[in-house]
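Entry 12.
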Amino acid sequence: MRILSVATTHPLAPGDGEPAYVQEVNRGLARFGHQVTALLPHAPGAPLLDDDGPVTIRRFPYFRPPGLQRLCYNGGILPNLRRSWTARVNLPFFLAAQAAAVALEVRRLRPDLVHCHWLVSSGLMGVLTGGVRHRPIVVSAHGSDVYLQNILFQTANRFVLERAHLCTVNSRGTRIRVLRIHPGARTEIIPMGVHPEDYGKELASPELRNRMGNGDPQLLFLGRFSRDKGIVALLEALGILLQSMPSVRLALIGFGPEEENIRRAADRLGITRAASIVGRVPHAEIPRWLASADMVILPSERVEGLGVVLLESLASGTPVIGSRVGGIPDIIEDGVTGLLCRPGDPEDLAHQVVRLARDGALRRRTAEAGRDLVTRRYCWDHVARRFDEVFRELVEGAANGAGSGGATKEDP
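Predicted 3D structure (tokens):
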């Protein structure tokens, strides 16, 4: 099967820190024998035509000179729009260039199926220029695209969902948001995944633990520094914990627009000695950092499509705490594969940390159950197999003249 994958985020080079889930889906589909072409925005210095093993990569330029292309990568389109006037100027040119690139690639490749990551802008261009009547158009909602309350985005999302043959969602929480936008949308829950074999406690490093603060216990946050991640509430929880656990330490790994606000919050709370902002680390080193922590915390407050860092942590054998937001409860069954806390509640978060820190049996039991869950359901081989099954069904149905229907299915 010929598959055209349309996305706006993808690694530009090995280990560059850009999200790799689009790359992993494409690689997995190629392993099942499909001919996959990824259509992506250009970035300064990147070739227009490239390959990622069996996957062909085509990048379209959207602004001149290329060095002023600031809309994509480096955190994503929405954060770039918030912080950069150049990105805002890029936007109309990007939309026009992406629409033209999708139309051109559809004519050139004649794909059997078009797979668009995010409803806007890739899904919008897919349903507008991908030839909906002649081939299935699949959109994948990753979370942030369907949580936006902006009326323009909501209208565009509804337009896409009404015309796409299928919307894959990464969690039950994301599916609920999709169905609020368009109750008739056909959805399939297919989460993102990890490679469990790349993680494990044997990768723990005393050097990295010292860089984190060598706490007792040693807490770790890994993710984007954005408002939705609940990092300030985590810092407030740390302040509470220090009153009864003076040796507790927190390391923050990541980058994003809220970094300066995070530093100011730590200073205001008087906890800078206990909170270490590590910043960005190479992707290849993440398994070692996760293995070196005592617990990983994801305290998201409003938006969390799935929470892949929780999967990576459980694959590492490191216990986790997450908030009851979005797709996090898909991964964390409270008391079974981790602990859940109320979003935006520092006292409850601190209570869960104490509970996990003081109960060694609970830590071992949840870590073991969590790794088993990741291995069974969230490994990339399983995810790729689900995409392959769904795509084959859609293409066969299109060949037989079947409609898209309105069914909603869950990942088995």
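Annotation: Residues 203 and 288 are 5 Å apart (CA to CA). The chain has a mean pLDDT of 93.
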